[in-house]
């Protein structure tokens, strides 16, 4: 090994000693290949929200032409998953979104119903991240739902709706603590499709971080269906 290579090797080792790469969820050391989360947290820490691969993760009836609602994990209020999603949403850890989106894609690889929809619609499938209001997007600097969709795209080569194709035109209040009726009223008419031709005849897969009552996803799906989408599905990281 050359002197320069030796120096680089020891510099890298010293840096790793002082600033080791750690899992953002549990704090255990991870390799560069593992990026943000360790294999245990990605594969075993959280509870599968849809172990039997039903077309609906929860106990409710989907609106007409919403054909699938799938969540990756069950939400753990006050737990590791809540902390992880909070970091994704507010701490600019966009790489976490990519990694979790890819995890969702790998999980869907075992979902027969999802594969059947992909077979039916083939190249007429479009991911639509739940949009943020323009003011909130400027403040935060990114949309966590779009980062999740980008991770999902690493597993399934599904196009993502361009920014601005669908807008959030009402800066809604946070839904936390609201009843279902309050949530529906709060989110009513909050979305607007700008470019109908981009969603016409598509199976639109709405992507978000958490599915609670469905008020947000259902309102967005209604807007998309009213502007020409053939059908809709809802994909989230967590089911509250």
Considering the chains and any ligands shown, give keywords for the structure.
6 strands; alpha/beta; Rossmann fold; two-stranded antiparallel ribbon; 2 domains; 4-stranded parallel sheet; 240 residues
Taking strands numbered 1, 2, ... along the chain, how are they ordered across the largest sheet? 1-6-5-2
Query: What class do helices, strands and sheet pairing give?
Result: alpha/beta
Overall CATH architecture of the largest domain = 3-Layer(aba) Sandwich
Largest sheet: 4 strands, parallel
Task: Give the % helix.
Answer: 25-40%
CATH topology of the largest domain: the name is: Rossmann fold
Rg over CA atoms, rounded to whole Å, is 19 Å
Distance between the termini: 54 Å
Short précis:
By secondary structure, the chain is α/β, with parallel strands linked by helices.
List the helices and strands and how they pair.
Blueprint: H1 3-18, H2 39-43, E1 66-74, H3 80-90, H4 94-108, H5 112-121, E2 125-129, H6 134-140, H7 144-153, E3 166-168, H8 180-187, E4 191-193, E5 203-211, H9 215-226, E6 231-239
Parallel strand pairs: 1-6, 2-5, 5-6
Antiparallel strand pairs: 3-4
Helix pairs in contact: 3-4, 4-7
Explained architecture:
With 240 residues, the chain is α/β, with parallel strands linked by helices. The chain folds into two domains: 1-45, no CATH class; 46-239, 3-Layer(aba) Sandwich (Rossmann fold), CATH 3.40.50.2020. Helices cover 39% and strands 16% of the residues. The chain has nine helices and six strands; from the N terminus they run H-H-E-H-H-H-E-H-H-E-H-E-E-H-E. The protein has helices at residues 3-18, 39-43, 80-90, 94-108, 112-121, 134-140, 144-153, 180-187, 215-226, and strands at residues 66-74, 125-129, 166-168, 191-193, 203-211, 231-239. The strands form two sheets. It has a four-stranded parallel β-sheet, with helices on both faces. Strands 3-4 form a two-stranded antiparallel sheet. It starts with a helix and ends with a strand. Mean pLDDT is 89; it is low at 9-19.
């Amino acid at each position: 090994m050359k002197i320069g290579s030796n120096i680089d090797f020891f510099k890298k080792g010293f840096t790793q000693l002082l600033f080791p790469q750690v899992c953002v969820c549990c704090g255990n050391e991870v390799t560069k290949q593992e990026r943000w989360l360790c294999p245990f947290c990605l594969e075993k820490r959280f509870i599968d929200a849809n172990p039997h691969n039903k077309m609906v993760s929860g106990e409710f009836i989907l609106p007409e032409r919403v054909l699938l609602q799938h969540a990756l994990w069950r939400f753990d209020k006050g737990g590791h998953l809540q902390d992880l999603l909070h970091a994704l949403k507010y701490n600019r850890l966009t790489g976490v979104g990519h990694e979790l989106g890819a995890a969702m894609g790998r999980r869907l690889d075992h979902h027969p119903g999802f594969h059947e929809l992909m077979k039916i619609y083939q190249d007429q499938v479009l991911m639509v991240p739940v949009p943020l209001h323009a003011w909130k997007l400027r403040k935060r600097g990114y949309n966590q739902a779009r980062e999740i969709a980008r991770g999902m795209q690493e597993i399934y080569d599904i196009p993502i709706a361009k920014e601005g194709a669908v807008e959030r035109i009402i800066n809604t209040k946070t839904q936390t603590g609201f009843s279902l009726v309050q949530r529906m009223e709060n989110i009513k008419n909050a979305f607007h499709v700008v470019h109908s031709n981009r969603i016409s005849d598509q199976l639109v897969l709405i992507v978000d971080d958490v599915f609670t009552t469905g008020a947000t996803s259902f309102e967005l799906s209604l807007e998309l269906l009213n502007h020409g989408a053939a059908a809709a599905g809802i994909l989230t990281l967590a089911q509250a």
